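Protocol step 4 of 6: structure prediction from sequence.
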Amino acid sequence: MKKEYKEQMDNLHFSQQQKQQMVDRLMAAQDQQEIPRRKRRPLHRIAAVGVAAALVLTAGAGATVVYHKLASESFAGVFGTAETEIVDKIGRPIGASDTSNGVTITADAIIGDKYHYAITYSIEKEDGTAFDITTDESGYYPMMFQKEDTNIGRFGSRHGSSYFYDADPTDNAIQYVEMMEVDRELKHRTAKVTFEDLRLFGDGEPRMIAEGNWKLKFDFNFEDTSVSLPAGQEFELNGMGAVIDEITISPIALRVAYTVDEKIQWDENADSGKQSEHDREQMFKYFESLPVTLTKTDSTVLDLAGMGGGVEPKDGKTVCSKGTVFDEIIPLEEVDHITVAGIEIPLHK
């Protein structure tokens, strides 16, 4: 049952009719109850970056492209510029692009770990003119593709977020960022990405920004620097027994997997596309109420209880995962411990 997308859409600036249309389409594509990321990402502006040496890459079906951006430059508007060495170590520039009806979409760079990935794209007109759109009060464009698909083979269910923003107001390009968490280990393979029809949403009917069909093919590859923390700790969650199955952390993301001894009970009579009060209570009981924090070595504490994730009834129990891609790069040497349901799990022994 897929009721969480209604809550996700309620946080965006679309009309109720537009929200419901998107909800219905998203729900039809999912295989597992998933919980969206609640917080929109802060908008980092790109600082001046030195010109990198040109990189010759292979993209698509043998097409060669010359690309001049490092991964850290492409992700500067996403993670900031404080940890460029880590981004360039983990991430990879891409440079694959496709043009349809005078609009080019380029996959700029990818970064990831065992269960997470982020890909940043640039969208620009061939004639050099800018798109006639304005950002919302948060600095984002309220847009979405009519269809988008990132095919990286079998990886189980996934959840995450995506958004449009302008990394450099002085050029004619806008940026699109996709961030995802999957429930199976990501492998090095070929990604096949499809986009169709870019639309702008507002108070009225959706407005077509760029009509077209774009297909990109590139190497889905990055350096996984995630580490696994000790697991198996038992705890109590709202009167139910539970156990930590796995904790993984990298400089870009955190994931906590756990199993609750009782089976979550969904409202079978709830309207399609809507989350009933009963299901909201169940989500809080099994998922949202689990406290997770990250404590740095300087004693800074990050509250990560609002992470996205998945909930799946299985064999009379409920298998859950909570995860997030961080708002900024966090070097692992700066992480002291993770706390889950009051249990401190140190990163360094």
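Step 5 (inspection) to follow. DSSP finds six helices and 22 strands in the chain.
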